[in-house]
Amino acid sequence: xxxxxxxxxxxxxxxxxxxxxxxxxxxxxxxxxxxxxxxxxxxxxxxxxxxxxxxxxxxxxxxxxxxxxxxxxxxxxxxxxxxxxxxxxxxxxxxxxxxxxxxxxxxxxxxxxxxxxxxxxxxxxxxxxxxxxxxxxxxxxxxxxxxxxxxxxxxxxxxxxxxxxxxxxxxxxxxxxxxxxxxxx
Length: 185
What we know:
alpha+beta; Arylsulfatase, C-terminal domain; 2 domains; four-stranded antiparallel beta sheet; two-stranded parallel ribbon; 3 helices; 19% strand; disordered N terminus
């Protein structure tokens, strides 16, 4: 990667780049956009662009105004510019693992609820209105079965829509050994 110019440790804020450095990134250099696009990922860039060329020249298929209608991501531009209220009812998150172990987790969060599914290790359900600190897991309480089921169905639909490999993943312990509960997959 090269100097993008304008800001950063190499150039004072609002100043010129150091002698011998361009204010724009050399188009022949690898960028995250190019690397991910070459690996088959769809790439997008959002935010200010200071590189002197278009994001497409650096491997980004879409940017701000060119986002496809079927993209899962949404532009924040309408919210920021026009004060449009929230667009989504829920957000989803994925967690795979860290260091040498894998503990695949999926989560859906709405304004009121947070539902978490651990691969081979159960579920958690929190009513964020009543328990913002997430101290009381409601997943096994009968009065919340309908809420848990609704959120689980939303998560299952999202997993299917995004072709998420979650159901086919395996977990490991800290040594990297596949957990016994996941060997049957």
